[in-house]
Specification:
signal, DUF1104 domain-containing protein
Length: 103
Amino acid sequence: MNKIIALALTIFLTSSVFGSSTCCSSQGGCGNQKSCQTKNDQKIIAEMMNLELNSMQRDKLRAMLMRHKMERKNSWSQLRENMYNVLTPEQKQELSKRLKTTI
């Protein structure tokens, strides 16, 4: 059940930003800077959810994301920062490696 929910959250996050991956890359850029930052934050959050997380971390990240979606907050960068603080140093390093290839 947890894997299904995590997969659904990942699909939800990546589907909203997948088509615009080149728009907001470091090479290109796009017309709306805030929109690009939001999309990049969502990509980073999706990558965090794809890391090997223990159940406590996964539950905490999922709760943060669901709370964010329910409250309709616009501060994706703040959510990204809060979720990043849950990760271990090894997971942060793995995330950094993954992001170098995707963003």
